[in-house]
Amino acid sequence: MKKVGNHNSTSRKMFFSLALMLTFSLTSIAQVAVPAPAAEVPVATQGGDPVKGKELFNSNCAACHKLDAKSTGPALRGISGKHDMPWLYKWIHNSADLIKSGDAAAVKVFEANNKVPMTAFPALSEGDIDNIIAYTSEPKAEAPAAAVGGTVAGAPQEGGISNAVILGALALVMAMLVVMLFLVNNVLRKVAKANGIEVAPKEPTMPIWKAFAKNQFLVLVTTIFLMLAGAYFVYGFLMQVGVDQDYEPIQPIHYSHKIHAGDNEINCKYCHSAARVSKNAGIPSLNVCMNCHKNIAEVAESTATPEYSKAFYDEQIQKLYTAVGWDKSTQSYTGKSQPVKWVRIHNLPDFVYFNHSQHVTVAGIECQTCHGPVETYEIQKQFAPLTMGWCINCHRKTEVKMKGNEYYDKIHEELSKKYGVDKLTAAQMGGLECGKCHY
Questions:
Q1: Are residues 103 and 181 in the same domain?
Q2: Are residues 84 and 224 in the same domain?
Q3: How many Cβ atoms sit within 10 Å of the Cβ of residue 140?
Q4: Contact 162, 71 (CB under 8 A)
């Protein structure tokens, strides 16, 4: 009997590939991320309560002091090692009296901090001061070593296997299947040849494009479909000319509306104050930023996100300091400033007139109506299409607020009778007239 193929060789290859795959899979499953033990932070051994001290520090001291960096006043971590408690009691209760008495340490601290007088806190008891000092005596917690910008791609996830390992195993299985199919096909051909079986040759077939061209019905249907689809996409493209909805440029200084308007609940009109009284909302001056960031040189650890680390946000604050010429170490302006080239997001055509004060102050329209939920935006974008149809639709459905606005009393009385309604919309008040929005 004629021997067909080398079956031992083929089987050996298949078993070797299967063993390799199983070994690779078991090894990858064993690579489960084990969380590192948390570093123990020693607790301060002061007589006060550091938890209560933190509350007192945030309500009384945080406006001018930080634990680990100089602000209006000096850094306070470890202050108990520089001065004794009786001196601290006198300094906190009334620093001005201590300076007037000629105390050398008090005069030195006063002069080292640009002779800025410290607010007196006579209401704080010695127990309260003990609590604050206990809080400032706690050692600085070490930040966990983590990759900037979130989880490293391909790293094992806690309690599971990384996506890269799973994809690699699947790719290996698919490659093995292809090899096995090729080997099976090769063996079958050898068996057929050994048994004198002839494999029927493939009959030539008509190319699919020729068969399609001969079918007139399919050609007609396809032509109609392509014409309708082309008209649809051309119409959609032309309707988007001049529309920059979802435009989201990268700014020279990363400003997070989510942190400012969302987490810290800063009112939009605090920064964009011109929106209440002017045609334009205006770009806030950097001096407005410095109202807060003069004493906020870094963000809290909890502010960091998987996309943006604490170091990234601190770097943006440093860009602000560079632009305005602020030296955080000396708490003073250097006089060397740099312009910030902000990228404009909302830009109406020159022939369109839009007045922010008319909408914000008179009509009482919320900023989110046109600009979207800015309190959730990490990067500001254009929310609305700002097309003519979008504005007209808003005028048609928005009711005019008459209460407390004597300017509209007479007009409302006349138009409400004309239209037979109790409340008028902006469109019924003339909001659709061409001259309202176009020069």
A1: no
A2: no
A3: 10
A4: no
Classify burial at 333, counting beta carbons within 10 Å of its beta carbon; exposed 0-12, middle 13-18, buried 19 or more: middle
The answer to whether the CB of 262 falls within 8 A of the CB of 296 is no
202 pLDDT tier (thresholds 50, 70, 90): confident
List the one residue out of 255, 250, 254 whose CA is nearest residue 268.
Answer: 255
Question: For residue 364, is it within any domain?
Answer: no
Residue 415 included in any domain? no
297 CB neighbour count, 10 Å cutoff: 19
How confident is the model at residue 410, as a pLDDT?
78
Domain assignment present for residue 292? The answer is no
Find the domain containing 230 and state its range. Answer: 208-239
Residue 137: both structure tokens together: 């005596």
Rounded to a whole number of angstroms, the distance between the first and last alpha carbons of the chain is: 100
Two tokens at 100? 């007037």
pLDDT digits 0-9 by tens, 70-98: 888 888 999 988 999 999 999 999 988 88
d(CA 392, CA 431): 8
- In the DSSP assignment, the letter for residue 431 is I
Q: What is the pLDDT of residues 374-396, one digit of tens each?
A: 999 999 999 999 999 999 999 99
Number of domains in the chain: 3
DSSP-based three-state secondary structure for 126: helix
**CB contact at 8 A, 29 and 36:** no
Around Cβ 422, how many Cβ atoms within 10 Å?
Answer: 9
CB 401 within 8 A of CB 364: yes
Helix (H) or strand (E) holding 290: helix 286-293
Contacts of residue 18, defined as CB under 8 A and 6 or more positions apart, other chains included, come to 176
Cα distance between residue 416 and residue 424, in whole Å:
7
